[in-house]
Amino acid sequence: QVQLVESGGGLVQAGGSLRLSCAASGSIFSINNMGWYRQAPGKQRELVAAITSGGSTNYADSVKGRFTISRDNAKNTVYLQMNSLKPEDTAVYYCNANIRAKTGWSNNYWGQGTQVTVSS
Questions:
Q1: Judging by DSSP bridges, how do beta strands 10-13 and 114-119 pair with one another?
Q2: Average pLDDT score, the chain
Q3: How far apart are CA 33 and CA 45, in angstroms?
Q4: Residue 96 CB partners (closer than 8 Å, separation 6+)
């Protein structure tokens, strides 16, 4: 069984910072791409940032220059450092990872989501 557990969400004023963490655990053989998505009320879930196992990154245009994704492969953990937060960043943030289990099967896993609220 593989699971992703997120932490670090909360309430912050505009211009502030938050750091999200997502740790994968269970019967893991390897982790490929990891990423963060978000979903605001009434909107579709969207990709915020992604990182490959080799460290290549990709960002949504709306967060470029403000958010930084990173990962610690030894800890099976991905992070999202969010700076200069804006009210429009308010959403539930979900961690996503493509994981190959020790059984040999690969699957796409999601975290439970963590609320980020930015007040103006």
A1: parallel
A2: 97
A3: 18
A4: 4, 34, 35, 36, 37, 108, 109, 110, 111
